[in-house]
UniProtKB/TrEMBL annotation:
<feature type="domain" description="Fatty acid hydroxylase">
    <location>
        <begin position="82"/>
        <end position="215"/>
    </location>
</feature>
<keyword id="KW-0472">Membrane</keyword>
<feature type="transmembrane region" description="Helical">
    <location>
        <begin position="46"/>
        <end position="67"/>
    </location>
</feature>
<dbReference type="GO" id="GO:0008610">
    <property type="term" value="P:lipid biosynthetic process"/>
</dbReference>
<feature type="transmembrane region" description="Helical">
    <location>
        <begin position="79"/>
        <end position="96"/>
    </location>
</feature>
<dbReference type="GO" id="GO:0016020">
    <property type="term" value="C:membrane"/>
</dbReference>
<dbReference type="Pfam" id="PF04116">
    <property type="entry name" value="FA_hydroxylase"/>
</dbReference>
<dbReference type="InterPro" id="IPR051689">
    <property type="entry name" value="Sterol_desaturase/TMEM195"/>
</dbReference>
<keyword id="KW-0812">Transmembrane</keyword>
<keyword id="KW-0560">Oxidoreductase</keyword>
<keyword id="KW-1133">Transmembrane helix</keyword>
<dbReference type="GO" id="GO:0006643">
    <property type="term" value="P:membrane lipid metabolic process"/>
</dbReference>
<feature type="transmembrane region" description="Helical">
    <location>
        <begin position="6"/>
        <end position="25"/>
    </location>
</feature>
<dbReference type="GO" id="GO:0012505">
    <property type="term" value="C:endomembrane system"/>
</dbReference>
<dbReference type="InterPro" id="IPR006694">
    <property type="entry name" value="Fatty_acid_hydroxylase"/>
</dbReference>
<dbReference type="GO" id="GO:0050479">
    <property type="term" value="F:glyceryl-ether monooxygenase activity"/>
</dbReference>
<protein>
    <submittedName>
        <fullName>Sterol desaturase family protein</fullName>
    </submittedName>
</protein>
C-alpha cells in the first residue's frame, strides 16, 4: 500500500479545517471552496488511489529489477544515501513535472491536477487516474543503487509536503525559505493561467531547480487559477480523460504523420503550420 495512503485521514481533516476557516474568516481576495468543486477533487483523489494500488506493484517490480542490475548498492544506514536520495528524488520530480507540462500526451494525464478554478487544500487531492506516465523518471534512482523502498518513501514525503502548498491562506514566507523551498506562493504561480505564470515553478520540495533551469517566476499579479480553456465540468470521468479525448480527435483528423506526432509529443496547444 502506498505510504501516502496513511496520511489521507489527516489530509481530509485539514481540508475541513481550511474550509471552515473561510466561513469564519472570509477573505474577498481568495476563491475559497465550492461544494461541487471539492467533491470532484475528492473523487479524483479517491480514484487515483484505487488505480495506483495495483500499479504500485508493477512499479516496485521494475525498481527492484533495476536495483538488482545496478553496479553498486547504497546502504540505507548511511546518512549520505539519504542526502543523495533527497536531492535526486526532487530533481526527478522536477523532470517529471516539467515533461508533463511540455509533452501533450503527458499533459493529458497531468491536466487533471490543474482543472479546478479554485486553489485550496482539496485541489492537492485532484490527481490523475493514469499514474503509469511517471515510472521512467524515478527509474534512474534505482539504477544508482538506491533501494526501491527508500525511493517510494521519499516520493511519499514529497507528496505530503506538496499537499500543504495548495492554499491561499498562507502568504509569502521568510525570504530564505522562499529562496530555497517550494512554498504556497510559488505553487500558486504554478497553478495560474495568467500568461506570465504558464509553465513556471515545477519544483517539488525545492525551488532551486526552477531557479537553476530558469523556470522560476515569483508571485506578482493576482493569480487566475485553472486552465487557459477551462473544461466547465465536475464529471470525474470527463475531468480524468478529456484531454486524451481531445488529443485523439486531433490525431484522427490530422493528414500527415508528422502532424499526428506533433499532436501527441508537441507541447499543449501545438498545431501544424498552415501550408503556404
Amino acid at each position: 500500500m502506498p505510504a501516502v495512503v496513511y496520511a489521507i485521514p489527516a489530509f481530509v481533516l485539514l481540508v475541513a479545517v481550511e474550509a471552515l476557516s473561510y466561513r469564519f474568516l472570509p477573505d474577498d481576495d481568495e476563491r475559497g471552496y465550492a461544494l461541487r468543486d471539492t467533491v470532484t477533487s475528492m473523487s479524483m483523489g479517491a480514484g487515483s488511489q484505487v488505480i495506483a494500488a495495483p500499479w504500485k506493484v508493477v512499479t516496485v517490480l521494475v525498481y527492484a529489477a533495476a536495483f538488482t542490475v545496478a553496479p553498486w548498492h547504497l546502504s540505507p544506514s548511511s546518512g549520505w544515501t539519504w542526502v543523495l536520495l533527497f536531492f535526486a528524488e526532487d530533481l526527478a520530480y522536477y523532470a517529471f513535472h516539467r515533461a508533463h507540462h511540455r509533452v501533450r500526451v503527458l499533459w493529458a494525464s497531468h491536466v487533471v491536477h490543474h482543472s479546478s478554478v479554485r486553489f485550496n487544500l482539496s485541489t492537492a487531492l485532484r490527481q490523475s487516474w493514469t499514474p503509469m506516465t511517471g515510472l521512467p523518471f524515478w527509474l534512474p534512482l534505482a539504477l544508482l543503487g538506491i533501494p526501491p523502498w527508500m525511493i517510494l518513501l521519499e516520493q511519499a514525503v514529497s507528496l505530503a509536503y506538496q499537499f500543504f502548498l495548495h492554499t491561499e491562506r498562507v502568504d509569502k514566507l521568510w525570504r530564505p525559505v522562499e529562496a530555497f523551498f517550494n512554498t504556497p506562493s510559488h505553487h500558486r504561480v504554478h497553478h495560474g493561467s495568467n500568461n506570465v505564470y504558464l509553465d513556471r515553478n515545477y519544483g517539488g520540495i525545492l525551488i532551486v531547480w526552477d531557479r537553476l533551469f530558469r523556470t522560476f517566476e515569483p508571485e506578482g499579479e493576482r493569480v487566475v487559477y485553472g486552465l487557459t480553456k477551462n473544461i466547465g465540468t465536475h464529471n470525474p470521468l470527463r475531468v480524468a480523460f478529456h484531454e486524451f479525448a481531445a488529443a485523439w480527435r486531433d490525431v484522427r483528423t490530422a493528414r500527415r504523420w508528422r502532424d499526428r506526432a506533433g499532436y501527441l509529443f508537441g507541447p499543449p496547444g501545438w498545431a501544424p503550420r498552415a501550408e503556404g
